[in-house]
Amino acid sequence: MRKASQVLLMCFAIFALNSKLEAQSPKREFRGAWVATVANIDFPSTQGLTQQRFMDEWEETVDLLKEAGFNTVIAQVRPTGDAFYRSKISPWSKYLSGKQGMPLAGDFDPLTFMVESAHERNLEFHAWLNPYRASMDTSTLTLSNMHPYKSHPEWIMSYGGKLYFNPALPEVRNYITEVVTEIVMDYDVDGIHFDDYYYPYPAAGELLPDSLDFTKYGFGFFSIEDWRRHNVDMLIGQVSSMIKLVAPSVKFGVSPFGVWRNSSKDAALGSATRSSVATYDDLYADVRSWLEKGWVDYVVPQIYWHIGFPVADYEVLLKWWAKNSFGRNVYAGHAAYKVGINKEPEWGNGREIPKQVRLNRSTPEIEGSVFYNFTSLRKNPFGITDSLRNNYYKTPALLPELAYMKLPQSPTPVLDKPKCIKTGGLKFNCYLKDPDKTAKNLVIYRFDDRRPGDYNNPENILQIIRLNGEENLEILDETAAKNKEYTYVASSMNAQHTESILSNWKAVKIGKWRVKKLR
């Protein structure tokens, strides 16, 4: 019995150790959340807020994400052919002011405020656009005179009770590219993000109204389906080329429906799934090809099913996207909105999302997570946000590197001698000569020793600071304790998140009244 007890205790110890290792945060991880503005799903809470209330709600949003350990916000700035920003070619969104084409009072630009607020909290801001959706209904009376429908009704098609920009038209591709160009030229966004709506999701008993367009534009294509995929390919390739030319430091990402293609349709390339919809066959978006061609910098497949779901298993799909990434970054899209809501028992507790995060971390090609939607994170069902805050996202994380962007390396920082703060802790200056403004972040490492330690352990990251062209920053470490030895080292990161050469290092010990230099 004694041996059996010892074996049992050893098993518990091994289980506890494995659980800790599974939950241990990596040094680099994409930690994002989608904030939906269409129909005011997440933000703002209602149409027609005052400017102050709008600002308060957005700051509450980014405060929660920052406090919970996130490093990226993906905010919907173009929900239905409209804009949450000052535009020369798109009307103000009705989800902002209550009436399409009408801004909030005063000379307030919501997107400038949203981006700056995110950056103040060291959150990357990715501008989320729905490229083709023109209206959530078919009524044209409430559309602004600035809406493209009013000047180019031939660009718009009606399907499934909504209005869409027609992907077949070259003029539409040029217009959407111009929309993206305006954003990356006028705003300090870190990424452009397209969601899963390309050709609309199939509506029962309704055919897409594009047969005449196929007759006009489809010469040389074997089928209308191949032609539709070509139309979407043309847009993605065009937008990608424009971003690389005009704003090479801006990432271009997409978040497709989680199933690219079932193996029943493509035994060689498809996934072992039985989904009734596939992004290739039904939405005419060949995302795998975009990754292969290098048109997108990252992909966030919306794998909105639980591990073991027979029709579309989360683990099966995660491995499929990992296998078909072609070296581009893959972040998993999680269905936080299902927790406590969906009838399947796997969503009836708080365990599914942590299981998925652990599975992501055990799959080398998967470099992070994005959660839909923010409202679910705010409501925190079964403590899923607490689990991220207190466990999986407890330590800070640098964003994953995107070396294929091939941006110039940022300069090496220089540290001076730390000094005591009367109220406790240390302060020191960090200098950075960066005339070309290549550095986007400063990383401060602190090691509890008189020499540097493990740079890959995120527990040794003291701060990650967003830079705005500063070349002299005062760094505060208010947690440094007396009679302890510390070593500080810094690096800078460029927009593709590549770290610079490490700085000089400063080893110190805090005495009763002053800092003792150890090196």
Counting helices, strands and paired strands, the structural category is alpha/beta
The named CATH superfamily of the largest domain: Glycosidases
Across the major sheet, the strand order is 1-2-3-7-8-9-10-11
User: Care to count the β-strands?
Assistant: 20
Residue-averaged pLDDT: 93
Rg of Cα set = 25 Å
Q: Share of helix among residues? A: 25-40%
Question: For the terminal residues, how far apart are their CA atoms?
Answer: 56 Å
List the helices and strands and how they pair.
Blueprint: H1 2-23, E1 30-35, H2 51-67, E2 72-78, H3 94-97, H4 110-120, E3 124-129, E4 133-135, H5 148-151, E5 156-159, E6 162-165, H6 170-186, E7 191-194, H7 211-217, H8 224-246, E8 251-254, H9 287-293, E9 298-299, H10 314-323, E10 329-335, H11 352-361, E11 366-372, H12 374-379, H13 384-392, E12 414-415, E13 419-420, E14 426-431, E15 441-447, E16 461-466, E17 472-477, E18 485-493, E19 506-510, E20 515-517
Helix pairs in contact: 2-4, 6-8
Can you describe this structure?
The structure is a single chain. With 519 residues, this protein is of the alpha/beta class. It contains 13 helices and 20 strands. It has an eight-stranded parallel β-barrel with strand order 1-2-3-7-8-9-10-11, surrounded by four helices. α11 (352-361) links the parallel β10 and β11 (366-372). α6 runs parallel beside α8. The protein is globular and about 80 Å long.
